[in-house]
Amino acid sequence: MSLMFQPLRRYADFQGRASRSEFWLFFLFCVGVSVLAGILSGGSMAWWSWGLGWRHHHGMHWGGPFSGVFGLAHTIFTLYVFVPSLAVTVRRLHDTGKSGWWLLLLLIPAAGQLVLLIFMLLSSEPATNRFGPPPLETDEPSPAI
Question: Any transmembrane segments, and where (predicted)?
Answer without folding.
Answer: 23-48, 68-89, 101-122
